[in-house]
């Protein structure tokens, strides 16, 4: 009886996993690029107000980039995220969160959590960049060359990680 229950549990987990996988593929193929573009526009328009939290979009970008990279890396599904504008947007979010940790001492823990989400997104962008290099497609190679020239050779992108390490404070930052 116990073996049968374990077997059924595994079957239900596998079925759930396959349904979630198909759901993520459907989101990537039908709505992801448009969603990221529109939400980023709204967030950039409301940058002066304090009533929005962009960490939800950062999380979604990280999740779907990682999902796409680990499944079969289709460039056209995440083209909105693999752009210089997206790298720049994530970098500016990280810089903003670092500045807010210093200036808003009461909410430093909140800003550190947001910075952590932005840093995870930046890491996934870099992982996707490496995966892009391994693709044998000419469009992927051209995009890789363009992103490397506009991201990896720009001083502010390279110094951001160093700045994060130098200003790490374990009192309010995540480990």
Automatic annotation (TrEMBL):
Signal sequence region: 1-21
Presence of the UniProt keyword Transcription regulation in the record: no
InterPro entries, per database record: Timeless (IPR044998)
Keyword Signal found: yes
Domain of life: Eukaryota
Annotated GO CC locations: replication fork protection complex
GO biological process terms on file: DNA repair; DNA replication checkpoint signaling; entrainment of circadian clock; replication fork arrest
Protein keywords: Signal
Recorded GO MF terms: DNA binding
Annotated protein name in UniProt: Timeless N-terminal domain-containing protein
Organism annotation: Glossina palpalis gambiensis
């Amino acid at each position: 009886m116990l073996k049968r229950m374990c077997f059924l549990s595994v079957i239900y987990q596998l079925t759930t996993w396959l349904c979630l996988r198909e759901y993520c593929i459907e989101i990537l193929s039908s709505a992801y690029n448009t969603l990221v573009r529109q939400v980023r526009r709204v967030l950039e328009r409301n940058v002066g107000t304090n009533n929005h939290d962009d960490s939800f979009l950062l999380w979604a970008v990280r999740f779907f980039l990682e999902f796409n990279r680990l499944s079969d890396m289709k460039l056209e599904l995440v083209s909105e995220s693999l752009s210089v504008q997206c790298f720049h947007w994530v970098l500016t979010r990280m810089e903003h969160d670092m500045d807010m940790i210093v200036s808003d001492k009461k909410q430093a823990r909140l800003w550190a959590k947001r910075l952590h989400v932005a840093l995870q997104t930046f890491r996934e962008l870099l992982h996707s960049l490496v995966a892009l290099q391994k693709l044998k497609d000419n469009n992927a190679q051209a995009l890789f060359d363009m992103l490397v020239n506009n991201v990896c050779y720009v001083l502010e992108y390279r110094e951001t990680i160093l700045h994060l390490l130098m200003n790490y404070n374990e009192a309010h930052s995540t480990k």
